[in-house]
């Protein structure tokens, strides 16, 4: 059985839908779709086009500020369990984590904080990283097969950013953020893309400035982390760079559970 999971920071679901998001999804056959940065409440979005394609949808929207953050998971098969958030109020009110369980597999749809607006949010981001790490280590004891997809807002290595030397002091490529990613992947998780493509350069986000996307001056900040007990099932991991509804592109993971 092959399972296709796509993760996509759509930078506003209503704006992305005006750019043909539903038409693109209708042309594909995804089992699970994880949207980040929906920037909407569920009652603000007409979801019938997705429902007609067979998708059920589950949301975790920001309660602290309208039109901000938020994640939504669409799936063809009903999950056994859906949980909004991680139980830490300062993160949950920003709509950053949505859990769906399918049998013994847990998928976490995550939108990590950005630190680009200044020191306060950078500190918030670092607190989130520490708290998320410890929360996941506990969750893994209960649910040992985890797939954690989303916008991590960190480029891990120099291979994952177009200008590493120039961005050494830029949020998203700070030494302490990169060290967290290294620790993350050293504790029972694999980077699905690097597992299959250890040396390839491919990005998932481009600034709107200076024609960056056309010149492929990007960052790889959208990840699919899988617990090490799932790596043998990985068959595909790609950045779908030709799909344009956002400043990010979709990130696809495919697993074959017959392997």
Q: What does this 3D model show about the protein?
A:
This protein has one domain: Endonuclease/exonuclease/phosphatase (Deoxyribonuclease I, Chain A). The chain contains seven helices and twelve strands. The protein is an alpha+beta fold. The protein is globular and about 45 Å long. The N and C termini lie close together (about 10 Å). The mean pLDDT is about 95. The strands form two sheets. It has a six-stranded mixed β-sheet.
CATH overall fold name: Deoxyribonuclease I, Chain A
The number of distinct helices, counting runs of at least 4 residues, comes to 7
Main sheet? Answer: 6 strands, mixed
Helix/strand order: EHHEHEEEHEEHEHEHEEE
The overall pLDDT, averaged over residues, is 97
Fraction of residues in helix? 10-25%
Low-confidence stretches: none
Total E-strand runs: 12
The CATH architecture classification is 4-Layer Sandwich
Radius of gyration: 17 Å
Overall geometry: globular
Number of domains: 1
The CATH homologous superfamily is called: Endonuclease/exonuclease/phosphatase
- Work out the oligomeric state of the chains in this entry: single chain
Note the gap between the termini: 9 Å
């Amino acid at each position: 059985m092959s399972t296709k999971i796509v993760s996509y920071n759509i930078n506003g679901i209503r704006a992305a839908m005006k750019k043909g998001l539903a038409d693109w999804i209708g042309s594909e056959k995804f089992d699970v779709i994880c949207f980040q940065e929906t920037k909407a409440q569920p009652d603000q979005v007409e979801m019938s086009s997705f429902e007609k394609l067979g998708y059920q949808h589950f949301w975790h929207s920001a309660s602290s500020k309208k039109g901000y953050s938020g994640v939504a998971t669409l799936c063809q098969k009903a999950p056994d369990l859906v949980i909004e958030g991680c139980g830490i109020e300062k993160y949950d009110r920003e709509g950053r984590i949505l859990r769906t369980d399918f049998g013994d597999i847990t998928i976490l749809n995550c939108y990590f904080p950005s630190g680009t607006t200044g020191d306060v949010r950078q500190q918030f981001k670092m607190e989130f990283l520490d708290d998320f790490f410890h929360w996941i280590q506990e969750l893994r004891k209960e649910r040992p097969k985890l797939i954690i997809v989303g916008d991590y807002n960190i480029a891990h290595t120099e291979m994952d950013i177009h200008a590493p030397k120039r961005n050494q002091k830029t949020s998203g490529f700070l030494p302490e953020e990169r060290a967290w990613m290294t620790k993350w992947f050293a504790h029972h998780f694999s980077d699905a893309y690097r597992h299959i493509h250890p040396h390839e350069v491919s990005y998932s986000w481009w600034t709107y400035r200076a024609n960056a996307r056309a010149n492929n001056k990007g960052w790889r900040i959208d990840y699919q982390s899988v617990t090490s007990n799932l790596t043998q099932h990985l068959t595909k991991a790609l950045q779908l760079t030709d799909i344009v509804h956002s400043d990010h592109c979709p990130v696809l993971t495919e697993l074959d559970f017959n392997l």
